[in-house]
Amino acid sequence: MTRTTMQNHRAAFVEAFASTFRAVFTDRAVVMVMVGAVILYSFFYPTGYRQQVASEQPVVIVDQDRTALSRELIRHIGRVSAVQVTALTASEAEAAAQVAAMKAEGFVVIPKGFERDILRGDQGEVAIYASGAWLGRANTVLTGLGDAITGFAREAALRQAAFAGAAAQPPLHLVQRPLFNTREGYGSAVVTGVAELIVQQTLLMGIAVMAGTRREQRGQLFFSGTQLIGIASACLLIGFTNMLYYAGFMFWYQDYPQGGNFPGMLVGGLLFVGAVVALGLFIASFFRTRERAYQLILVTSLPFFFLSNLSWPATSTPQWLLWLAKLLPSTPGINIMVKFNQLGASFAEAAWEMANLLVLIVVFGVLAWWRYRRPC
Amino acid sequence: MATTLNGAATGFRASLRSSARREWQFLCHSPWDMALISWIPWLAMILFAAMFYSAVPRTLPVAVVDDSRGPVSRELIRALDAAPALDVRSHPLDLHQAWPLVRAMQVDAVIHIPADTDDQIQRGQPATVFAFYNAALTTAGATAFRDIDAAVKNLSGRIVLEHTALQQGVDKLKPAPVSAQVTVLFNPARSFEQFLLGLLLPAVLHLMLCVAVTSACCRELRDGTAGRWLEQCGGNLPGAILGKWLIYIPVFSLYGFAAVLWVSVIRGDGIAGSLMALLAGQVLLYTAYAAIGLLLSGVIRNMGTALSGVGLYAGTSLAFCGATFPIDGASLFARIWHYLLPFTSYVKLDAAERYLAAPAAVTFTHLGALVLFILIPGAIGYHAYRRAVLDPSTWGQR
Predict the structure, then answer these.
(1) What is the ipTM of this complex?
(2) In degrees rounded to 5, what are phi and psi of residue B62?
(3) Do B308 and A134 touch (CB under 8 A)?
(4) Are residues A229 and A158 in the same domain?
């Protein structure tokens, strides 16, 4: 390569890079998507999950025993934060009606003879019912009530021991240790995955709106390889800044688990945004109007998030769907960022996602180059 | 036919017909706009249906670190492997070898059986077992823990019967002071297909409908065709708007019915409450989002910006509807936003009809809320959109 062609390439790169920045920041709609929406969603989305752990779910107590011990159990239930006792009744049907009317998420039945059985050294029986209409809440209610009953049982065991001798303790005791998201916050688990999706969707939309606008003005678009690299570099810089804003500022601001593997986060973020830019340039070549991007990219967000298998285990997803999902940057992207940021994974432990992203960069990069090449 | 060809339909019904015909002809010549109401919603629904087909998490990969290597620990490993949600995939020699598997997401949980477990149980002393699980993956982690817990409790009970009774005599055998019988009402199998798929399908459909209607309303302003459109509809704007809705709302309602049929009838146990109320709720849900599409179009008048608004309002419904995570403890803003979404009323109606067989008062409260979400945004939207249609200077915004 001669000196002048080198200079020509450099000039073409700089021109493409600079004109892409101009195109972004002189178009109100593109700035709104690539910058405005990114900031807006970083505050808006987490507000729904502010309290992190579900609490104070309404439950009804059906106390058919009405003794000192049943009241003791009710006091234990009143002390757990997951549930809140909203009514006391003697009728199971009434409690069930409260659940059906959406006024309670569950109820506990303390049958007659509960105290007598415990004081005799027998087993006192209670029944717990949780509304399964919204499964997440049922789990909260069952865990909360389970904790309360365990606490009560421990005291009851001491009481029995005083007159009937110590009961055999269960031989196996299980200690529960949640890893990475140690408080088991819902926002910590969901929003940290949604963040990558927001970065991807806003970047795809911004690129496609720009391409659609130019297409309307100039007809079919042609770019040389160098120009394409210039455009891609500008988009990469914007997307990577957005990614760092989420993984750095927003996760810290919301107190989400973060910073496990800092160099990994940088490399993973770069690969992820690189794959998004390559996909964005490729699909943008099909958009003929400005607004088409909003229509088609908006509606994909929800399916893309679930395809990342953050919320639903991959082992319960059909194999063909898992392979299909790997064609989207968000699938390896969300997983790699969660691995580096929350799990503190090493590079070797994220090798599969890195390879996936590299393949996407190459495949979509070549496809984009092929779509924009000038026919000879 | 003659009236539309001449471009002057008269009367409300004629304007309705000619507007619907005009919209349909546009869709037939615009493959991507047609895609948005045909194969794209079906593709999304099929992907979701396939994803949740197994209904409950199965064979979650777990690792067991067995430092005890005795009959009890072997028994526990067999019990873990037999648990439907678990698959003992790996046996690392120590915990240091187990952590990389968790960080690489190759296993969702690690069960550690400490060295003295068997000895302690032989001596009649309680032993402690540890369950570490990946809490960054909410469903997998929590499900794995629940099955580990059940396996340990089950084995614990068997040990009491076998060891304690044999060694210390049956009279020493005393039950725990309290036992709890646990029942999950309505969804006893804890099916995520019933829970999540039932929410996801209307969530994705109402967003697509809102995008389609907002595009249809904004398109006439963007392309400067609002005048001709109104003219073809005999100057009857309500008829012209409803004519467009007449394409989108029935189409998405039918998709919604198909979703209800799949989730509740084919894959589920049927509808506990009123099927009619649920289907009416579907139609009202899509009509409400059509009204909101009209409102955004009339107020914003710029297709790109209006669609961004749709993304914010209808694209985040699932996060704020309170069904996946309770909203009661969230900020005031989030709680207000929650009540401003028609989707919130729909998911409550959905729970009331699909599972709870709720009293009529509950049903009518949510149906009534959906009607208000049609009337209020519809009325404001109509006036705003009317002003836009009658003012050519606001057309052509990009």
Answers:
(1) 0.93
(2) -135, 160
(3) no
(4) no
The pLDDT of A257-285, averaged and rounded, is: 93
Q: Where are the domains of chain B?
A: 2-52+194-394, 60-172
Query: Which of A195-204, A216-225, B125-134, B140-149 has the least mean pLDDT?
Result: A216-225
Task: Write the CATH number for A69.
Answer: 3.40.1710.10
Closest alpha carbon to A190 in A328, A314, A53: A53
- Are residues A34 and A63 both part of a single domain? no
As to burial, measured by CB atoms within 10 angstroms (0-12 exposed, 13-18 middle, 19+ buried), residue B153 is middle
Instruction: Provide the pLDDT confidence category of residue A166 given band limits of 50, 70 and 90.
Output: low
Looking at chain B, which residue has its C-alpha nearest residue A296?
Answer: B36
pLDDT above 80 for B166: no
Residue A221, domain extent: 9-49+189-372
Residue A1: pLDDT above 60? Answer: no
In one letter, which amino acid is B171? D
Give the model's pLDDT for residue B62: 96
Token pair 């989730």: residue: B263
pLDDT of residue A74: 94
Cβ distance of A123 and B176 shorter than 8 Å: yes
The lowest-confidence range among A107-111, A349-353, B322-326 is: B322-326
Q: Which of A215, A225, A210, A251 is nearest to A342 (CA)?
A: A251
Answer whether A50 sits within 8 Å of B331, measured CB to CB: yes
Inter-residue contact A73 to A153 (CB < 8 Å): no
Q: Is residue A3 part of a domain?
A: no
- Per-residue model confidence as pLDDT tens digits over A39-65: 999 999 888 887 778 888 999 999 999
* pLDDT score recorded for residue B15: 93
Which of B50, B124, B137 lies closest to A318 in CB terms?
B50
* Pairwise CA distance, residues A235 & A280, whole Å: 9
Residue of A nearest to B121 (CA): A171
Co-location of A249 and A313 in the same domain:
yes
The full length of chain B comes to 398
Q: Report yes or no: A349 at the B interface, CB cutoff 8 Å.
A: yes
Residues of chain B found within 8 Å of residue A204, distances taken between Cβ atoms: none
A237 touches chain B (CB under 8 A): no
CATH number assigned to the domain covering B60-172: 3.40.1710.10
Please indicate, yes or no, whether residues A273 and A362 belong to a single structural domain of this protein.
yes
Output DSSP code: residue B171. G
pLDDT of the residue at B318: 92
Residues A37 and A62 in one domain: no
How far apart are the CA of A194 and the nearest CA of chain B, in angstroms? 11
| CA R_g for chain A | 29
| Residue A37, in any domain of the structure | yes
In chain A, the largest separation of any two C-alpha atoms, in whole Å, equals 99
- Could you give the CA distance from residue B45 to residue B256 in angstroms, rounded to a whole number? 10
Whether residue B268 has pLDDT greater than 80: yes
Please tell me the pTM assigned to this model: 0.93
| Arithmetic mean of pLDDT, B78-95 | 94
Name the residue in chain B with its Cα closest to that of A159: B177
Report residue A10 CA to chain centroid gap.
Answer: 41
| Average predicted confidence (pLDDT) for chain A | 90
Higher pLDDT, B92 or B172: B92
CA count, 13 A, side-chain hemisphere, A94:
12
Q: pLDDT value at position B5?
A: 45
Is residue A183 in some structural domain? no
- For residue B6, pLDDT beyond 50: no
On whether residue A169 sits in a domain, the answer given is no
pLDDT at residue B76 is higher than 50: yes
Taking CA–CA distances from B102, the nearest residue in chain A reads: A343
The total of structural domains in chain A comes to 2
Closest CB from B152, B207, B361 relative to A174:
B152
Task: Indicate the helix (H) or strand (E) that contains B102.
Answer: helix B95-103
Radius of gyration of chain B (CA): 29
